[in-house]
Write a structure and sequence with these properties.
432 residues; alpha+beta; six-stranded mixed β-sheet; four-stranded antiparallel β-sheet; 13 helices; 19% strand
């Protein structure tokens, strides 16, 4: 099973997930190679035509916003290597390696790229489709040459020399940033620029994230309808992946069953679904590069009779009220930490405190092209919420050796308050 955390971090999954899922499901059920997927999976329709790519013009506007923020933060240039921000600004999807590939944006003048010479044709193929266009300044370097001097010369050609300030994007490898000191520039974090752009979502970005959330919730529901006594957690996860593929997108989930649902990010132990046992699914998908991140806690059938079932229902109710408290607290001008405090207060008042005793993580993280990105709904973060920020809203209560409950939906900060992109779960028996 591909980890949901790995999926959200990488932004991609193998194209063969559907076939692998089908094979594993067939094997578990003793079916022949010609078996059919469950009806709930087959009933799903492709939504691929609803996903419209980010345009060249949108990326050009992002570059201009970045320049405004660079000017406000007294940066003369910004250095971005392979990763999400490279895709965000120029639409280039590049694998990070020890060979430097970089986009350098001066606050004034034409941007340029630094690229291994043998990769130039492949680079220009992608660069030409982006905002810089097919006339881009691409500075190549041979295997026995230093790419750092290409960076320095590109900056000098634009009147940016020693003593100037260059912002380094968060994910630039240390060995790049460390050697960039050869440019004799002052290096600073570019986060005010990259986060300043990416934290605030456009209507187009929000639409893609709404679609991603819709796809993931439908995948969960289809897999839930196919759940049975004796099903392994891995087989359930594979159905979630197949349900995403059926809708035209790559996605998946970590699946935690029984006592393992009290471990927020999972275990390597094999797990089996039984009636009345809690199953926690946590995952998402990517739609044109934009992520969903949703968790549902369910049972097969109903919670057991008696004290154990009553406790499950009580914990679910507490977590749902905590999620609602976060929604009520989140609005423009409010500090991020206040949203965490609102949810944590409900859980603590219910006897599952103090602090991180049973609610072991922050209530939410920023979302966008990365499943986790700026900024975070956590104690100590005084960043003020702004309209069109996106977060997860995911309180949980984890009782080691018993079970855990987490409810997670994606939270959009509106002009007046906030909204979830998906309906809240109603109960353990009615999660959709």
């Amino acid at each position: 099973m591909i980890s949901r955390r790995h999926f959200l971090g990488s932004g991609a999954m193998a194209a063969g997930v559907s076939l692998a899922s089908a094979s594993a499901f067939a094997q578990e059920n003793g079916a022949s190679a010609g078996f059919k997927m469950p009806p709930s999976i087959l009933a799903l329709k492709s939504l691929k035509d609803q996903a419209t790519p980010i345009t060249r013009e949108e990326r050009a506007a992002r570059i201009e916003k970045a320049r405004r923020l660079m000017s406000e933060n007294k940066m003369d240039a910004m250095f971005v290597s392979a990763g999400t921000s490279l895709r965000y600004f120029v639409g280039v999807n590049w694998w990070q390696s020890e060979r430097m590939f970089a986009f350098v944006l001066p606050v004034k003048g034409e941007p340029f790229f630094v690229c291994p010479a043998f990769e130039e044709e492949r680079a220009r193929e992608q660069i030409g489709r982006g905002p810089v266009g097919d006339k881009a300044d691409v500075r190549t370097w041979q295997e026995d040459e230093s790419p750092y001097w290409r960076v320095k010369q590109g900056l000098l050609d634009r009147g940016i020399g020693a003593g100037a300030v260059m912002g380094i994007e968060d994910t630039v490898p240390f060995f790049f940033a460390n050697t960039l000191e050869l440019t004799a520039m002052k290096l600073v974090k570019a986060t005010p620029v990259t986060a300043g752009c990416r934290m605030i979502k456009s209507e187009h970005e929000l639409a893609l994230m709404r679609l991603a959330s819709k796809v993931t919730l439908a995948a969960y529901e289809a897999a839930y309808k196919s759940m049975y006594d004796g099903m392994t957690g891995d087989a359930f996860a594979e159905l979630v992946s197949a349900a995403h593929e059926r809708q035209g997108f790559h996605g998946g989930a970590d699946v935690l069953v029984g006592k393992y649902s009290a471990l927020p990010h999972g275990t390597i132990e094999p797990q089996v679904v039984k009636p009345g046992t809690i199953l926690l699914m946590d995952g998402g998908c990517s739609v044109e590069g934009y992520a969903s991140d949703i968790s549902r806690t369910v049972v097969l059938g109903k919670p057991p009779a008696g004290a154990v079932g009553d406790k499950m229902r009580h914990v679910f109710d507490v977590v749902k009220r905590a999620q609602s408290a976060a929604i009520a607290a989140a609005k423009p001008g409010v500090e991020c930490q206040a949203v965490d405090a609102a949810a944590r207060g409900v859980i603590t008042d219910a006897g599952f405190g103090p602090d991180y005793a049973h609610f072991t993580h922050r209530v939410g993280h920023g979302m966008g092209m990365d499943g986790h990105e700026w900024t975070y709904l956590v104690r100590g973060n005084k960043t003020l919420l702004q309209k069109d920020m996106m977060f997860s809203d995911e309180p949980g209560v984890y009782l080691r050796g018993e079970f855990g409950v987490r409810l997670e939906d994606d939270l959009h900060i509106t002009a007046e308050g906030s909204e979830l992109l998906t309906p809240q779960s109603e109960s353990l028996e009615k999660p959709f």
